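Running this now, will post back.
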Amino acid sequence: MITIMHHLLGRHTTAARRVVSSSGSFFLCSRTYKRNIHASHKPHLAAAAANKRNKDLFTPSPFKRSDKININDKFMVKRDLREGDNPYGIRRYLLFPRDNLDDSTQKPTIIASINANKNILFGAQLHTKQSQSDEDYIADYFAACEPLLDLAKEDASINGQQVQALATLKGLSLWIKECLDRDGDGSEVLTSLLHGEQPNILLQSDKEGQEVESRSKESSNRRARQNVKRQSAALILNNESDRILMLDAIRAIATGVPRPGHSVVGQGTYRDGEEGWKSLAWEYSNLATVPFDISNGVTGLEEVSLYKSRDGEVASIEHLASVDADYLKVAGGAMARMFFV
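Update: finished.
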């Protein structure tokens, strides 16, 4: 199965090439010449004027002059390109201590990293855990990843596309299991499935959702809600047997225990539980706070909170975005697609 993460990591993908003919290029230059206010009788000068104007539409890469940027006197960020010299292909942003990176006798110590492919960021993680305390880990995670994200986000916008992120939901399965143990308490979606009731979040329009593409925060939030309403409305089931089928599938995905009559938690289970699992994942992802609050007992949302701290908004849930065995256990493969607005 080809997953979103496989695409982002460059597996199962093909490179597309666009060839512009000489006649096509001339036609574009001719149009520019006719419409540009600085039009000249020399087409190449008109084209140059248009190119200069169009530069303002794009953000210059912070790594234009060097693949290393010093963020202060102790740390630096390095951009590691994975597809030759393509700055917009698969790449990693790595946080290093400056003294360690300058010492050729030592292997560089990676403190934190963020991955990217084109305008999509993913996989923000802390590599050096200095303390066993959850509070200290969260503090270190944000201290290391926030400046890294700032540079990665700016670099991902160089082609004028809105920057997106895929955030892991590593505590989703645990949260659902805990809500199941409390008879649905803590989740309106799960309460509705357990008791056959329709919670407030389901009493919404089932209008087809739109992606959050606008850079206007108000507009983006509205579109994100429309998307979620569409997904939530899918939980209005036709009959009792459908409700039980979905609930059993969700329980199996969350616990790893196959449904009655099944020997494994397989593709059929993920298919039957898809809409319910996506609605639960959206509900869970919106528990992320800024700043991150570990005292509320909800774990595994630090990456969502990190992106939210830089104006990221959850737009939709990607089902089976990763089929890594360990990630299936902790999140059922679901990830949150976010847009920076």
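The mean pLDDT is 78. More later if anyone needs it.
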